[in-house]
Amino acid sequence: NLQESESENKLDGETASDSESKSEFGGSPPVPTSDDTPEVLNRALSNLSSRWKNWWVRGILTLAMITFFFIIIYLGPMVLMTIVMCVQIKCFHEIITIGYNVYHSYDLPWFRTLSWYFLLCVNYFFYGETVTDYFFTLVQREEPLRILSKYHRFISFALYLTGFCMFVLSLVKKHYRLQFYMFGWTHVTLLIVVTQSHLIIHNLFEGMIWFIVPISCVICNDIMAYMFGFFFGRTPLIKLSPKKTWEGFIGGFFATVLFGLLLSYVMSGYRCFTCPVEFNNDSNSFTVDCEPSELFQLQEYNIPLVLQSVVGWKTVRMYPFQIHSIALSTFASLIGPFGGFFASGFKRAFKIKDFANTIPGHGGIMDRFDCQYLMATFVNVYIASFIRGPNPSKLIQQFLTLRPDQQLHIFNTLKAHLVDKGMLGSLEDA
Q1: CA within 20 to 30 Å of 408's CA: 146, 356, 372, 400, which one?
Q2: Which residue has the higher pLDDT, 400 or 83?
Q3: Tens of pLDDT along 285-316?
Q4: Mean pLDDT, to the nearest integer, of 40-57?
Q5: Which of the residue ranges 25-34, 141-150, 319-328 would you say has the lowest mean pLDDT?
Q6: Which pLDDT belongs to residue 418?
Q7: Residue 156 burial class via C-beta count within 10 angstroms: exposed 0-12, middle 13-18, buried 19 and up
Q8: Are 214 and 332 in contact (CB under 8 A)?
Q9: What are phi and psi of 387, to 5 degrees?
Q10: What's the number of CA atoms in the CB half-sphere (13 Å) around residue 323?
Q11: What is the pLDDT, as a whole number, of residue 379?
Q12: What is the pTM of this model?
């Protein structure tokens, strides 16, 4: 029996050192889970088997979440940024709470306070950078904001350094190892959660379409992989997630690519989705009005000869963004799920079913956003690598904040450059 128990532990990825750590920290029993399904649904679905009951609960709650997603999109960028902030805080809370439960760290001196203090410091740094970057004119107009912006990084470093010193002062001899475990736990959580949510907001400022399409592709892939796996799944995909199947993985991929093309086509025709989100200093509000870039103007593409005989067309009219949507949906389908597998491995390592029980049938907020954070990083890197170019409006804003002698120097340098290129003379003749 002892050998069987040891082999089961090894299958779960537990080693001897893990067992020693658990005994040192008081053990790490599974976080208890309960049936969090609303009583109304329990009564309505009482005659169904557990498999179909779970299917209906997940389906109904999924529709509710999609409806909420549409509502916050309708309410505009400011509400979206607020929701991203709230989701970030909730995800941080769920992961930190697991650390409390696993390592029985409730009695560590200052640890709860320090965890949330570091969250505050990191958010102050990232959101301060965002305000300085996207609200440049407003910052320069208000004296307190201008001072905070000028010394923002020094203030951020001083705040973090204060927390670091507080942590060192809180070290207790009998808890050294546990305290450093939790210090690392906190910082890895900040890296995963706060950094990624910051990138989501940056994607939003590039245009609502860069926020909505990637998130929708991950949602679509999650739903369609579940549907294909539920009805056709036979072949296990990965041991970390026993319920995931190859049928669901492949079916989700094709469904998501098709969905991405259709959604991109619909959204590319509306300026409110395609224009960058900018702050209007006159009205002190966000605006999303502009002349659509080439990405969002219909163009004609030649269909490869191999496919012409199949589809019967020689050319097709589509938005260039739809081509980029193929890359986004492919990542959401093939690489995005590995964020979920990573989360599954994390939960198996600590013998928990879900991060929390916030959403009936779905688990915690982090259970729903494990793939979204990986997607946010990809979209930000993709935009920086293939889409974003120099922004003339930001350069002009910075130019206007310089001293007159500096402005004159740049003007003369630019004038000499244009004369050498032969562009200034042609403009004067015109």
Answers
A1: 146
A2: 83
A3: 777 878 888 999 999 988 888 888 887 888 88
A4: 70
A5: 25-34
A6: 86
A7: middle
A8: yes
A9: -115, -55
A10: 15
A11: 95
A12: 0.80
Cβ neighbours around 413 below 10 Å, total: 10
Measured at the CA of 363, the angle between CA 12 and CA 379, to 5 degrees, comes to: 90
Tell which residue, 23, 287, 96, has the closest CA to residue 14: 23
Give the span between the Cα atoms of 292 and 375, in whole angstroms: 25
Please list the residues that pair with 301 across neighbouring strands.
316
- Angle between helix axes 152-170 and 143-150 (nearest 10 degrees) is 60
The CA angle 83-344-22, to the nearest 5 degrees, is 110
Question: Where does the pLDDT of residue 24 fall: very low under 50, low under 70, confident under 90, or very high at 90 and above?
Answer: very low
Q: Nearest CA to 222 among 33, 370, 87? A: 370
Within its chain, how far is the Cα of 186 from the centroid? 18
Q: Do 218 and 372 contact (CB within 8 A), yes or no?
A: yes
Residue 30: predicted pLDDT? 46
Residues ≥6 apart with Cβ < 8 Å to 283? none
DSSP summary character for residue 385: I
Q: Are 274 and 211 in contact, with CB atoms under 8 Å apart?
A: no
Nearest CA to 207 out of 391, 332, 77 is that of: 77
Are 373 and 193 a contacting pair, CB within 8 Å? yes
Instruction: Evaluate whether 182 touches 104 at the Cβ level (below 8 Å).
Output: no
The token pair that represents 330 in the structure block = 């492919």
CA distances in angstroms from 73 to 66, 91, 208, 276, listed in the order given: 11, 21, 9, 15
In this structure, are residues 207 and 276 in contact, taking their beta carbons and an 8 Å threshold? yes
Closest CA to 292 of 272, 265, 274: 274
Whole-number Å distance between alpha carbons of 193 and 366: 9
The strand pairing partners of 315, in sequence order, are 302
- pLDDT tens digits for 351-363? 888 887 777 666 7
Q: How many CB atoms lie within 10 A of CB 339?
A: 20
b/e burial code for range 68-89 (CB count within 10 A of at least 16 → b): ebeeebeeebeebbeebeebbb
Phi and psi at residue 315, to the nearest 5°: -135, 165
Indicate the length of the chain as a whole number: 430
Nearest Cα neighbor of 307 from 299, 318, 315 is: 315
Helices (H) and strands (E) in the chain, counts: 20, 6
